[in-house]
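Lab channel / #folding
Pinned by the channel admin:
"Please post every new chain as: sequence first, then the structure tokens as a reply. Keep commentary short and put observations after the output so the thread stays searchable."

First post following the new format, from NK:
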Amino acid sequence: MTRFTREIEVEFDKIDSKDLDRWCDHLGKKVEELPSLRLEVTVDVGIEEFEDEEVIGQYEEITRPGDGWIERTYRYLAEGDCAAAMEEMAREFGLAPPSHARAVADLLTRPRA
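Reply from TO:
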């Protein structure tokens, strides 16, 4: 038996549903005002429950490269373009803009009076 755990985030403002709209109207809120809902889902699965082709397909799905942001970041670093690499990482991970990180680094490394 194998246990898979995944965090799922439901962003209500990205859901197009008349039921959701009616519920929000009833609450006197707008869909955009609803906070995201985060759930952690755990499933126990036995490998014997799947055909070989399904296992191979899922493995390929899981290990397939994403949208290439890692490759772009690596290339930027190889080219010495640290700013572009930081921009990619900030977008991917939802980090503060690199200008903020540079400002903090400047504060930490400036000569003390």
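NK: The chain has a mean pLDDT of 82.
TO: also worth noting, Residues 52-63 form the longest helix (12 residues).
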